[in-house]
């Protein structure tokens, strides 16, 4: 992503969060006052401890308040929270989960994308740039049973690091789709290999990242929500071997089990990876 899309990406991410991305994981349970007191109290004490330890000045405190206002004004709360906090929430959730390895959802999921039957080709421009890429595999239960009719909701950037729906350049729905597996739970998805990208650098999240000297890059990756009736949805990402940003992912979302090693198919420049998913009972 270039440094011109923070406002657009932020507003769209905020609206997406309001409309449904949290529905992929939320239980809908009412807030428990004791739980709120414990968690928020611990978070506030962590901030107060940092103030004491680092002798925070009033000028730094005022700068922090201005930064919070900027995050709100640009709608970047989903971006900031998903980049810097979601991976810890996902790690806690994974402690009690079986099935395939998951990772963060991130702020760029969109509901109501085109539904396709496997084998499928994701919507793309006639001259879509990038290396042709095929992701194939099977969705099974934890006891090895193929899950007929399972779905693979997939989205990713184009060859320049842009997400459709969060930047002006790609058309709506570009490189997004919900693919229904065949009767044996198998899927085959034709698309383009995504590119690494930086989080938007002109907004407050990007400015904080650069000021702190942290890497703003995300390695190239595919986002997936893999689901089947009666099964827990696996929220995950798949990465690519050799990517220079695997060890410096700004979102801390990479895991060794999620790294693909694509091979040539013999069909021109096309490459392919096979990756199976296992879903536990929901």
TrEMBL record:
UniProt KW Oxidoreductase keyword: yes
Which residue numbers delimit the Intradiol ring-cleavage dioxygenases domain? Answer: 135-163
InterPro entries noted in UniProt: 1_2-CTD_multi_dom, Catechol_dOase_N, Intradiol_dOase_C, Intradiol_dOase_core, Intradiol_RC_Dioxygenase
Known cofactor(s)? Fe(3+)
Looking up Pfam families in the UniProt record yields: Dioxygenase_C, Dioxygenase_N
Q: PANTHER family this protein is in?
A: DIOXYGENASE, PUTATIVE (AFU_ORTHOLOGUE AFUA_2G02910)-RELATED, INTRADIOL RING-CLEAVAGE DIOXYGENASES DOMAIN-CONTAINING PROTEIN-RELATED
What name does the UniProt record give this protein? Answer: Dioxygenase
Q: Which organism is it from?
A: Pseudonocardia nematodicida
Ranked from the top, the taxonomy reads: Bacteria, Bacillati, Actinomycetota, Actinomycetes, Pseudonocardiales
